[in-house]
Amino acid sequence: MNRVEKINYIELLKNGIFKENTIFKLALSLCPSIAVTNNLRNGFLMGTAVLFVQVMVNITISLMRNIIHPRIRLPVFMLVISGWVTVTDMTMAAFTPEAYKQMGLYIQLIVAFASILARAEMFASKNKFVPSMFDGIGMGLGFLFALTIISLFRELLGKGSIWGYSVISGKPLLIMILPAGGFFAVGFLMGLYNWIDIKYGKKYER
Q1: Which of 37, 40, 143, 173 is most exposed, with minimal Cβ within 10 Å?
Q2: Segments in the chain forming alpha helices (H)
């Protein structure tokens, strides 16, 4: 019994990180993947913020699922999401003011992320606390993973640095830290991710 539950939880984590990755597989909530990923620090902080909101929303909706009337579930879900986004927004403004000046607007936009509302509706509102928490962790880690990879790629090529530390001498590709470079990076990495998944994914599932 315990073995079956453990395998299911691991599958929930893997599902969010790989099979249903928000950015690379579902192509949802793409705005921050272009807007805030011109350096690794901002991409990591944005991914961490989404991870926190996704987990807390899933936990809250799961605990409230039996007392929410079906007709008003979506407004309630939005209120819960707004509440946790506000907590995240105020926390980042207090503890990471420099990063918040650059990405504060996008932190507030987490309220409108389809991926968070979708998991609340599809999973957390129908499952107990622990599975919902693992689902939120998996989906949040998948988002964090995608933003970290995109940010690393753009900062390395666009500035020749990683987390602000110079690692490549020579002239960087300035376009990679501009919005046009963001579209290119997301498209290229999304294509590469899906090519690897098609080529090697079934082999690892056996």
Answers
A1: 173
A2: 2-14, 31-35, 40-64, 73-95, 97-108, 114-122, 129-159, 179-205
